[in-house]
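Acetoacetyl-CoA synthetase, pasting as requested.
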Amino acid sequence: MKFPNFIRIGILPLRHLLEVNYDSKGDVHFKSGVEANFIRVLSEFLGFSYQLVITDDAEWGQMKDDGNWTGIIGLVHRNEADIAIAHLTMSPERSSVADFLFYTVEENSFVTNLPGFVMKSLFYLLPFHTNVWITIISAAIFMPLLFMILRSKALSFHELLFRLFSILLGQQGYIASSELKCRILIGSWIIFSLIISSSYRTVLLSTMMVPQFAHDVRNIKELAAAILDGEYKASTSKGSVDKELLSRSIDESLQVIGEYIIEESWFSEDNIVVAPKYIKDFTAVLGPRFFFLLEYGEPPFTTKRIFKETISFWNVGLAIRKDFCCKKHIEKYITRILYTGIYKKFYEDELFKARLNFNWRDIDPKIKALSLSDLVGAFIMLGVGFCIGFVVLLIETQKVNLIIIPCK
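Structure tokens follow.
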């Protein structure tokens, strides 16, 4: 059977995939994009002209309560389009009303803004967690009290505190005692101080050199916990199958994310934006990883974080009417386009163009020279030490003035 000379194609305008423009008559035409070039090559091989049809509801397609379909799947189902393309996921529900011809695989994941850096002025507090700092301070206060209880010849509390603190800082500190229980106590403190001080120095170097992020969410489990705490939101497109996939998942974290998306109606504002140009802070967007790379770039030259975890794998295909005559012809040429690497070349060309359009000034370099603001913490500690030393000097001076020297 001869392939038709004219077909209708349902599309959704998508950046980097199906970019369109309108002529003076209001007709829509392809401008650029991976799948726009894909259709152009198919039309040249099969020798057909086409009319682009854009759905009014701006959705890929989902079944409504009355059994009808929305989006470009609905166009095919209602015979308003012969084929439809817009990086369509091949789901069992959609396959019941339209046939699909596979041409790529989609990996879905989340993307967020990279969080801001922690102030370098606080770098000296970062090596240990807050609970560790509280434990160290408690041990430093409790140990002198324990010494005062066990020693027969007790030193004052501030003298013991000063000597034990000197040992903790790796300085020379000595507490003389011939009693076995006190020697065991001193030995345990020396071992404790060695572990704490060496761990602090080791981690401190890494903390100073590697950027530290605030309110950082790196994986699905952390995202679910942040959503439960009310710190983060997650969104996806309204017509996507992802929300049902999340809510039906056996993974508890994905279930939490999916339930919140549905209950709170966390959907993209215009529904068809797979990768919004601007992502709000403390918001994770679910979508195809390859499209995120086109829109946001690849590390380290990006201001976004794409999760390494893959939520789902979906086959992506061209939707065709059930009663369309020439599916074998289209399938044959799609196979040729894939095997010859033409589709991959379209994607790499678009990826290259997207990289050229990146605003490199928005990228905060990870490796750079230390500035004065990075060393504020060190200067603050130095200033505090000078102030304490000056106060101690005044106290010692007053003590000397109060000493009565007997006359001979």
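Note for the archive: The first helix runs from residue 34 to 46.
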